[in-house]
Every structure is written in C-alpha cells, then in structure tokens.
Amino acid sequence: MIKAAIIAIGDELLIGETINTNSAWLGKELTTLGISINSSVTISDDQDTIISTISQLAKTNDIIITTGGLGPTKDDITKKAIATYFNVDMREDANTRKHLVEYFNRRGREITQVHFEQAHLPSCSIALGNSVGTAPGIYTNQNDKLYFNLPGVPREMKSIFEENIISLLNDFKNSMNDDYFVYKTIYTTGIVESEIAKRISYLDDENDSIKFAYLPSYSGVRLRLGVLKSELETNENLLIEIENKIIKLLETYIIEEDKPILEAFQEYFIKNNWTISVAESCTGGGLGSLLTELSGSSKIFEGGYIVYSNNAKKVLLNVNEATLNNYGAVSEQTALELANNCRVKLKTDFAISITGIASPNGGTNGKPVGTVWIGISDSKETKATKFVFLKNREANRELSKYTALSMLYRKLKYNI
Q: β-strand 145-150 against 137-142: which pairing, if any?
C-alpha cells in the first residue's frame, strides 16, 4: 500500500491565526488518486523540527508533502531544512530565475535580490513551476521515496499540485508493485447518514473486499467505496455491481450527475434553460451567495431579496400584513407568499423562499429555534415545507440553504 504524509509548516497555523485548509485539500486529492494518508501533522517554522519530522515520517511513508515556508523572507526556511536533510548545497535554478524576472516585469514591479532567493533550491531537487505565483514547488526523488515541498498560499499550492504533481504520482504508482485503493464516490442529497447506513448496511457486511466510508456535510452525504487495485483487477465489475445496488436502495436520494448538489443543481438548470430567484429571511442572502459560487451561475440565477424584517417582507415582496399578523413571519403562509411573489416579480421559472428562526434566541414552544419554512414556487404551484433543524445558528443557516436546493432538485428530478 502506497502511503503518504502531509506536513503543514507555519507558526500561524499552530496559533490559529490561519486555518489549515491545505492539508484537508491535499488529503482529499491524494485519496482520490488511491494513495493512503498515513499521517498529517502541523509543525512550527523551525529547521530542526522540520528535519526531524521529515526524518521520522519518511520511515513509514512513500510520499512526503510539505506546505509552507518557501517564500523570500527570513522565516521561510523549508528549503534550507530540505538541503540540510539531504546534506546538499543550494543552487540557483535558471528557469525559476527567468520566471521571476518575467513575473515582476509583467506587473511593472521592481525585482530585488530577496526575490531571487526563491530561485535557490537544494541541488538534489527539481523546481516545479508556479504559474500563479513566484515560489516554485520542490521535487526530490531519493531512495524510492518522493518528497514534495509546496508554498503555503492555497491557490499556488493547488496549482502546482494539479499541473505538476498528479502526473508524477501516477507514474510512481505505476512503477510500484505495491497495491493501492481505487475509489468510487456516490453523491446523495436529502437523506441523513444514519438512514443511508440503515438501507445499505447489509451490502457493507457482505462485501469484505469493499471499504465503505460515509462522509456527511451540510450539502449532503458522500458515500465512498474503496477497493484494492489487485482485487478490482480480479473482479472488474465489483464496484459497478455494488454501486447499482446502492442506487436502487437509495432511489430518489441519488444525485444523478455524480457530483455535489450545487454543481448538479446548476448543471441541471442550465441544461433545461431554467431560471431561479430567491427570497430569504433567516439565511440573509446566503442562498443567493451559494448559487453564485460557480462559474456560469448567471445563466440560471436572476437575483433575489433579503427580507429580514417584516417591513422588508411587506415593502419588497408585498407580503400581506394580515398574513404576518395572523401567522407570523415564520409560517407556511408567509413562505408561500414570499416564494410566489418573488417568482412573479423577477419573472423566473422557479423561486425559493426561506424564513425561520436560526439563532439561539427568539424561539417559542410552538416555534422552537431551528424552525424553518422553505417555499418553492413555479408556474403551476407553490408549496412550503416545515423543518426543525438544530439550536446552532450557523448550522441552521447552512442546512436551510442546502435543504432548499435539495428540495427543488429532487422535485424536478424525481417528481417529489
């Protein structure tokens, strides 16, 4: 089994000043490639610590990846630590120097000797081009182990990994006799982890060859199936057979586009040339923001209204005062009017409304914290559904957004 270790370097990560998203991203990408993550650690900007950590993890891993410490300032010491670890000198990489000159010239900025420090690499290593920044990644192949050192800036780290490292890892896998996992991910929406486990648990019990993993999030549960390459070569239909059984058992909770709900939702709407608008209270524009996260969202998203107060509901979307007085802002009747009036006003094919009690305060016995009404309107009908989520404000807002997308997606896909 090919194993990898991830080392995030930086005092700012340890003290909580910066959130370490790099390790999570790398872990996901390596797992997708079938490489097992054996260790993931965060350490300080200290040369001795870097060297000792690499030395220790190299004993039990085939691949070592570090992030951070490759910039031009004095606290960027990863390269020097790597050179010391391999007992080599530093040398200037001509291609990196050329890249630095061109990078600064394009931006009309003066380049200094400090910047050129980024072109100096351990003599046993190879530079990995950085198309979005200045500091190159570093690649070292020693004693049948691969060492990668990447910048800490997430977009630079991701760019170097995608443009350079994936191909190197695939070549390494093909050259090794060791086995590795092949994964298949099934995306679901509108169903909780425990219900999925209840429906498919017998498949897990009956198939020792397949490793089941349940990966819940606000956007839905991803079900990951893993099988060793050697076993898949013995029975190439193994994953397909299990996947088909799972699809039948989960039925209308499967995302047919085989991707997260937001991507599937947008793809489905673009395919059908549909438009959508939103009317939001407790989510405060969060659903509209979510719908615009992906490139191409302008093809489906017309706009929306943040109607947080009762006055805004009346003035912006013509909710009847009698409705608010008799039923309240968090009610089926208000959700219906918000969704319908939003759709009509913005002339969209569909509209979603969300009104609820998200925060720890403001709930009553009849309407506890977490009570949310979600309305969906099209030219044929407008319906609203009640949910009672959690007592956590952030969780309620996230659940409201993704539940709304799930409701409309499943309504259109499966006529629910």
A: antiparallel
Q: How far apart are CA 273 and CA 269, in angstroms?
A: 6
- CA 26 to chain centroid, in Å, comes to 11
What CA–CA distance (Å, rounded) separates 26 from 175? 22
Q: What pLDDT is recorded for position 182?
A: 87
Sign of CA dihedral 80, 82, 88, 91: negative
Torsion (CA) 359, 361, 362, 367 in degrees, nearest 10: 70
Q: Read off the pLDDT of residues 93-137 as tens digits, 9 standing for 90 and up.
A: 999 999 889 888 888 888 888 888 889 999 999 999 999 888 899
The topology under which CATH files domain 261-414 is: Maf protein (3.90.950)
CA distance 74 to 71: 9
Domain 3-175 and domain 261-414 have a common topology: no
User: Which residues of the chain register pLDDT less than 70?
Assistant: none
pTM for this one?
A: 0.82
CATH class of residue range 181-253: alpha beta
Task: For domain 3-175, give its CATH number from 3.40.980.10, 3.30.420.10, 3.30.300.30, 3.40.50.200.
Answer: 3.40.980.10
Contact of 336 with 384, CB cutoff 8 Å: yes
